[in-house]
Every structure is written in C-alpha cells, then in structure tokens.
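Example record for the data management plan.
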Amino acid sequence: MNRETWLNEMAARMAPRFAELGHPLPPFRVSVGFTSGGMGSNRVGECWDKSASGDARFEIFISPDVATSIDAGYILAHELTHAAVGIDQGHKGAFAKVALAIGFTRPLTHKAAVSELLLSMLQPVIDELGDIPHAPINWRAIHDGARKPKPNVDKGAGGVTPRGTESAPSSSRPPKQTTRMHKAVCETCGYTVRVATSWLALGAPHCPTHGAMIAESKGPDNE
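Corresponding structural encoding:
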C-alpha cells in the first residue's frame, strides 16, 4: 500500500459518517502534493471543486511535509468536508455544521487539538490500516533560501542544531534566481528598463530619446 492508497482507503472509511449527516461524499481522489500556493504556502491541505477536474471528481491534496497519521487524517477529514458540502460554503454554513458534528473545534480555518470525538473516527481506521507509509519532506529549507549545504556547526544546547544552520536538501528543481535587477527610469518621458548590478556599475543606461537615466535605489526589484 502506498500513501495515496492509504489516504483514499481512510477517506472511504469516513464516507458513512458524512452520509449519516446528510452530505454523502461525491466522487473524489486524494493525493500527496503541494497546494496551489506552492513551496511558499503554509497550507497543509486543499480541496478543488469537481469543475476543475477532467473527470468531474473533487481533487484533494495533502502537503508532503505532514508528519503523522493523525495529522494526515485530520487534514483529510477537513478537506472531505469541503467536498461533501461544496466549496461555496467556505468554512461557514453547512461546512461548519458537518465539521462540528464530526469533532472539529473552532476556529474551523486552523488546526486545533484533535478532539476525542474526531479521534474516535480517525484512530480505529489508523489501527486497521496501520500508519501512513509516508515520511515528511523537508522542503521548507530550500524555500527559505538555502541553495547549498551550509558548513557543519556545533549543535546547540540539548543537541539541537541552531535554527538557520541546517543544510538545504537537494532537488532537481531549477535554482533560485538570485540576480537583483535595478529599475532605471528616464525622468523626462518615463521610459523604464531593468539592469543588473554588474552592468549598472559600468554606467547608467540611456533612454533612446533623452539620454542618461536614473537608477532607483528602492523598489520591489531593488530590495
């Protein structure tokens, strides 16, 4: 059994509870993958409406850095609730009614402690299936800007590596663009170009009509 099979099996075992609450689950599939915000997002799960799917199924994604079976089940139950009641409900209306009935606690938009009621739905399924065959991916270190392994350092108190000194994991994703472009503007007509620092050091670019331009020292391209 792989992790997607585990997630779909868990979802199938949750399905009767949604039917009891008057919101049977529509056709869906569950995968481990980045949410629409990509590596910069803190979202741990996401549900896409059937209208976005080529075969009219709700598509649920669980973030690859989810670590435990309980967390995976918690996120899955949340996203299944979206599928059951419809994305248009947001976290209110029918969503809130069903979520509270299966054991979620407010605020419904954020992960809270797993209640005894919700645990009573999740734990028996985990006991039956075993733990999810998955290990979390440490991808946030890459997103935070570390592109090369950092030098070895002594661990801090308690044997914990100081924050910010971990080596970044490798991947085949394209390297992050590190060149900072400076915006240069013609003060007369507003003609605008962007130029790398190395070229700017040789001289300011020129407007085709009015000559030398002024390079700005601040702005979204120069921060």
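Summary line stored alongside the record: The first strand starts at residue 28 and ends at 32.
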